[in-house]
Amino acid sequence: MKPAANPFHPDLQRAARLIPKVTVTRPVLAVMRFLTRLQPTPRAPEDVAVEDVRVPGPSGGQPVRVRTYRPRRVRGRTPALLWIHGGGYILGRPEMDDLLCVEFARELGILVASVDYRLAPEHPFPAPLEDCYAALRWLFAQAGALGVLPERIAIGGASAGGGLTAALAQLAHDREEVRPAFQLLVYPMLDDRTTTRTDIDGTNHRGWNQGSNVFGWRSYLGREPGGAQVPAHAVPARREDLSGLPPAWLGVGTCDLFHDEDLAYARRLQAAGVPCDVTVVPGAFHGFDVITRGAGVAREFRGVYTAALRRALFPAPGVTELAKSG
Fold this sequence. Notes:
The chain is of the alpha/beta class. It has helices spanning 13-18, 26-38, 98-108, 127-141, 143-146, 160-175, 210-221, 259-271, 288-291, 296-313, and strands spanning 48-55, 64-71, 78-84, 111-116, 148-158, 182-186, 248-253, 276-281.
C-alpha cells in the first residue's frame, strides 16, 4: 500500500511535524500565561504610533485597556478596525498581535484599536464580550476626537477573537446603539457543540485540539459545553436568526478543528441574506498564519483578508487614497 498523502500544505509540513501536541489544562494554562508575559513587545515602528489608552468599562466597571495603532502619515478622518485577539477565551493580550495590527494600520491607512479584554475562567461570559462592547462603544463615541469615520468602523478577530467578533456583531445588532460596518472572522471559535462531536479525527489538528476546545469553552461558559441551552450571545453559532448582521469575511483551513463549524456559520449567514465571502486554505491548521508567519501560504492568507477589509472600508473607487499625504 502507498503511504497516506501528507494532508498539510507544502509550506506547512515542516511546522506541522514540529508543533508540540499540547492539550490545555489549568496547569498548562498557568505556564502558557507566564510564557506570554515573558514575550518581549515588538518595538513600535517609526511610521506607526502605538498607544495604550484606558476606556470606560461596561456598566461603570473597571476601565478596559485598548491598544491603538495609527499611521503617522495619515491626515484627516479614516476608517477604523476594532481588533480582538485570540487565545481560546483564556489566554492572550493585544501585544501578541502587534505585528498584524501595525500591518493593518500601515497598509490600509486606518486606526486599529486592539482590546485587552478579561479572560476566562476567572472572568467567564459575559465579561470578555462586554469588555469588547465597551471598547466598540468608545470607538464610536470618540470617533470625532480620534479622527475616525463612524460609518466605516469594522470589527475583527482570530480564533476566540473571531468568536467574540461574531458575538459582538450580534450584540451590537440587538442593542441598536452602534453598528459595525463589517466583521472579519479569521478561523473563528463559534460553536461549543463541536466539543461533543465523536466523529472528529484530530490526527491532523495543530495549534488547538478537541481537549483544549473543551477546556476553553468550559472556562468561558462556566459550565460543561454542548448543553441544551446557553445564554444569548455566548455562542455565536447558537443564534437562530442571523439576518441583519454586518457583511462578513470568513477564512479557515481544512486541517483546523473549527473548519466545519465555520463553514456552517458562513452558509447560514449567506442564507440569511448577509454577504459573507469565504476563503478555505487546503492543508492549513489552526493559527498557521501566526505560527508560520513567513510562509508563502501564510502571507497569501493575510493578504486575502487584508484585501477583504480594504474593500469593506474603502468601498468607492479612489477612496483608498482618502486622507493619505505625501
